[in-house]
Design brief:
Layout lengths: L32 E9 L22 E3 L2 E3 L7 E6 L2 E6 L2 H14 L6 H4 L2 H17 L7 E5 L15 E6 L2 E9 H17 L4 H15 L6 E5 L9 H6 L2 H13 L3 H24 L1
Antiparallel strand pairs: 1-5, 1-6, 1-9, 2-3, 4-5, 7-8, 8-9
Helix pairs in contact: 1-3, 4-5, 7-8
Length: 286
Amino acid sequence: MGAMPGSGHRRVAEPRTRSQVTEPRYHRSMPIAAYLRVYVPVSGSDGPVLEHVADRSGRASVLRQGEFGLSAESARDDAFVIDEGGRRFVCPRHPRLRMLEGLLAFRGAFGDSSIAALVPESVADRAAEELDRIHDRFPGAKSHILTSPFAIPLRWFAVFEQSDRLVTEEHGRMAVRYLTELTTGLQRARRAVQVLEDVGFDEAIIEQVGDVVRWLEDFPRDALVELDYGGVADLFDETDLVLDESAADIGASLDALARGDFDAAGEHYAVAASRWAPAHALAYAN
């Protein structure tokens, strides 16, 4: 868990096979980040949102200097779109909202004075004021995307099972995604919290998994949740990606904890942790 043992791309999941090849979503020059996304179903009255679909054509990202720092993401307020089970789902990007939330969360994560050099108090105050204005104007506005640079938090895998995984080849590179119904993913995440509480894990670790639960709870129950390795996939060779069973490892660790087999829980967790250790080290180094 934490310390615990472009173009309107559409993905049709029926049939879902490991060899399926889809349009490219990413380019190697994209930021090295993974994404946890929630897609909500589109009703007939929501049609206009589909006129502005996020670019997933694979064009190179361009760094832009803005008031709150550098950004490699388009400022256009569009959405990702997928088709699944005969229905259409959208994941609004809300780039400005996410940027402001991320900036304030980054500053709040560090209590020492050194953070002021990166995010001065005056900048944080302006970001908070703008975020308040956005919420005043759009009370229902919320981030549908969580972003993790360089590595995937192991707690994200608690939302999925190995059968949710899809590996594709897109323009000569491997792409890895997991997709499940939100109700199913939420049930798994809640169980993870319960298991960790039952065996007496540190409150800080439980809180991290609980954050995922609380984020998912804020969306409609007929939504979908997707884990996309994004540019993080480029940190692994193709063999490692094909053999990656992180969701199975985390699930097995939780199952072992639930039955009181702490040795097995530690072994399963260690496999996932060692697989992701170099990527997490890169994240901390940056």
